[in-house]
């Protein structure tokens, strides 16, 4: 276990800061062992599933490691889902126990109205005084009454460690299996790529139920770094945490970065501790990258990955010789999807199964393989077989390649719009919309149209205290791109729907139009 190594090497070092509480590596190791002992006392066996429904916290990190220690499979749950959706996941995974934050008592009550396999609940925080029909325990009491060693499981590298359910943007949620080998090799890859060291302080700001943040649980622990927990995103709270806790790096989804950059108090905070910000989940315009680096005065890395890939597939880290380019040319590479992550084989294939030309024009689908790729989907052998071709995972993402081997995603295969016989990639239209001075967020998608087949449609969120008309936005787009790419309709929203990983949920935008 990486935690055991950290305990040996850094026993007195602060491992976790969670609000006004902090824990050394020795304390974290003891608490984790006690939690593992508790579960072994409930007859949890290697391969059994334990689910967790919690915000970013020390308990989340402890549960990750406790499950690994006894060979159980941890199933992190997206607390933004409805009770029926979570109940489906619990049932599909066959979870025996649930570790839940007491703030989610009402959600858990709804979950237990459905058919689940749960045998017990461990409550983090004050245990709700409600009857749930299954035994429940207090988290801190479980730890204090089980102090002492547990019997570590004999775990093989190909045993499943985690079960993450996809957001369901393409249909029914599927359980993505990640093995101990997947998790460990991905952690080693990020340590090497990001040059992680024991003085690093990781800000757990994106939700830990998603791999966009969860990977750092292992990589940062491996090098003896510090974990700072932020339980929910508020721009001012996060900026204050960066300053006060001296956070050195974190992964922030584009929406978070936008809200921080545009916050009226952004200039009042000290970001000098930051050395790198990672972001992904959506393509990014060079102008946005410029704003990020100018605001936070640190390096920026655009990332691309999937739940199925642990998650990283590419980083926009500059090759050595590219660091001699002018700042403007460097910015172009920094805003690309990036070059392959360590240990990943990546190719972009055309419809005939041949690699596309490295000309930044020919579009193809990204195929990947490597030791950090999932072995498949939980109890879904047909879907697993369909996802792979000759050992390569077909991602469903469309991209172009440049002569340096950097890829740039142009769209999801399913999101490409065909209008009047022309292919329109939503990202190129979105990049134009982000150039508009009043636009905070934008999403472009196609809706059925009798004349055009599909009509380009934009959903836009304006910056605070700004106003704009549909005509104004459409006219702006016409000035910067071909007419057939210009949205025929612009819808103004207060916020865009998003998945648990922070990706814009285009299906929710598109569905209301399908019946029209």
Structure summary:
The chain is α/β, with parallel strands linked by helices. It has 16 helices and 27 strands.
What does this structure look like?
The protein is an alpha/beta fold and 516 residues long. The protein folds into three domains: 25-155, Rossmann fold (3-Layer(aba) Sandwich); 182-412, ANL, N-terminal domain (Rossmann fold, 3-Layer(aba) Sandwich), CATH 3.40.50; 416-514, GMP Synthetase, Chain A, domain 3 (2-Layer Sandwich), CATH 3.30.300. Helices cover 31% and strands 26% of the residues. The chain has 16 helices and 27 strands. The strands form six sheets. The protein has a nine-stranded mixed β-sheet, with helices on both faces. The chain has a five-stranded parallel β-sheet with strand order 4-3-5-6-7. Strands 17, 18, 20, 21 and 22 form a five-stranded antiparallel β-sheet that branches. Helix 15 (470-478) links the parallel strand 26 (453-462) and strand 27 (489-492). The longest helix is centred in the first third of the chain and has 17 residues, at 25-41. The chain is globular and about 70 Å long. The mean pLDDT is 93.
Low-confidence stretches: none
Second CATH tier, the architecture of the largest domain: 3-Layer(aba) Sandwich
Name the CATH class of the largest domain: Alpha Beta
Write out the strand line-up for the largest beta sheet, numbering strands in chain order.
Answer: 2-1-11-10-12-13-14-15-16
Structural class: alpha/beta
Number of helices: 16
Can you tell me the CATH topology of the largest domain?
Rossmann fold
User: What characterizes the major β-sheet?
Assistant: 9 strands, mixed
CATH homology superfamily of the largest domain? ANL, N-terminal domain
Helix content: 25-40%
* Share in β-strands: 25-35%
Number of strands: 27
Integer-rounded radius of gyration = 23 Å
Task: Please report the distance between the alpha carbons of the first and last residues.
Answer: 55 Å
CA-based shape: globular
Average pLDDT over all residues: 93
Count of individual domains? 3
């Amino acid at each position: 276990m990486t935690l055991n190594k950290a305990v040996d090497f850094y026993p007195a070092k602060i491992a976790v800061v969670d609000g006004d509480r902090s824990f050394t590596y020795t304390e974290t190791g003891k608490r984790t062992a006690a939690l593992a002992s508790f579960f072994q006392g409930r007859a949890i066996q290697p391969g059994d599933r334990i689910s967790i429904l919690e915000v970013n916290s020390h308990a989340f990190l402890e549960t990750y490691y406790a499950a690994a220690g006894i060979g159980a499979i941890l199933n992190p749950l997206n607390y933004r889902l409805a009770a029926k959706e979570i109940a489906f996941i619990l049932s599909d995974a066959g979870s025996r126990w649930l570790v839940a934050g007491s703030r989610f008592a009402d959600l858990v009550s709804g979950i237990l109205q459905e058919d689940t396999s749960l045998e017990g609940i461990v409550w983090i925080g004050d245990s709700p005084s409600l009857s749930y029909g299954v035994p429940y325990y207090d988290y801190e009491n479980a730890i204090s009454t089980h102090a002492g060693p547990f019997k570590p499981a004999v775990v093989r590298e190909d045993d499943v460690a985690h079960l993450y359910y996809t957001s369901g943007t393409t249909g029914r949620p599927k359980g993505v299996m990640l093995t101990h080998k997947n998790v460990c090799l991905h952690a080693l890859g990020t340590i090497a790529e990001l040059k992680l060291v024991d003085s690093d302080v990781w800000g757990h700001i994106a939700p830990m139920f998603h791999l966009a943040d969860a990977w750092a649980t292992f990589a940062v622990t491996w090098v003896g770094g510090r974990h700072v927990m932020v339980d929910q995103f508020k721009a001012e709270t996060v900026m204050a945490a960066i300053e006060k806790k001296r956070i050195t790096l974190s992964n922030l989804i584009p929406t978070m970065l936008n809200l921080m950059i545009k916050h009226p108090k952004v200039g009042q905070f000290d970001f000098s501790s930051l050395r790198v910000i990672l972001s992904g989940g959506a393509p990014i315009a060079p102008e946005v990258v410029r704003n990020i680096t100018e605001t936070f005065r640190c390096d920026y890395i655009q990332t691309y990955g999937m739940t199925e890939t642990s998650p990283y597939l590419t980083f926009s880290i500059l090759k050595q010789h590219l660091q001699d380019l002018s700042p403007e040319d460097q910015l172009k590479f920094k805003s690309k999807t990036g070059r392959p992550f360590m240990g990943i084989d990546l190719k972009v294939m055309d419809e005939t199964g041949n690699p596309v030309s490295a000309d930044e024009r020919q579009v193809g689908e990204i195929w990947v393989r490597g030791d950090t790729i999932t072995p498949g989907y939980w109890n879904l052998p047909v879907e697993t077989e369909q996802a792979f071709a000759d050992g390569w995972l077909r991602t469903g993402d469309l991209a172009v390649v440049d002569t340096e081997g950097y890829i740039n995603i142009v769209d999801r295969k399913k999101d490409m719009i065909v209008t009047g016989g022309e292919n329109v990639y939503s990202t190129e239209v979105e990049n134009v919309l982000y150039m508009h001075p009043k636009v905070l967020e934008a999403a472009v998608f196609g809706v059925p149209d009798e004349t055009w087949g599909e009509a380009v449609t934009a959903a836009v969120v304006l910056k605070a205290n700004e106003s704009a008309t549909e005509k104004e936005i459409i006219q702006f787009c016409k000035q910067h791109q071909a007419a057939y790419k210009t949205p025929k309709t612009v819808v103004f929203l207060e916020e865009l729907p998003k998945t648990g990983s922070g990706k814009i949920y285009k299906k929710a935008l598109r569905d209301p139009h399908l019946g029209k």
